[in-house]
Amino acid sequence: MTNNLVTDSARGKALVETLGDRPVALLRGHGNVVVGPDLRRTVSRAIYTEVNARMLLQAVMLGGPITFIDPEEKQADRVRP
Known about the structure:
With 81 residues, this protein is mainly alpha-helical. Helices cover 54% and strands 10% of the residues. The chain has three helices and two strands, in the order αββαα. It has helices at 9-19, 39-62, 71-79, and strands at residues 24-27, 31-34. It is globular. The protein starts with 8 loop residues before the first helix and ends with a helix. The mean pLDDT is 88.
């Protein structure tokens, strides 16, 4: 059993590995952890992560099919000017 909190360097390292180059990770039972290059970007990511999670929950509750962005679409968005 564990309280799932990051309380030592081993868990901190595991969290860093989980995050990798991504800005958000979910902590089971504790919400999320958000990182960014500055405070403004980090807070923005935190707010929109919650907004997007609520929207996804509402879509799931509606019961219709959900079409997620596939890797090719995601990559195409990154190369647009």
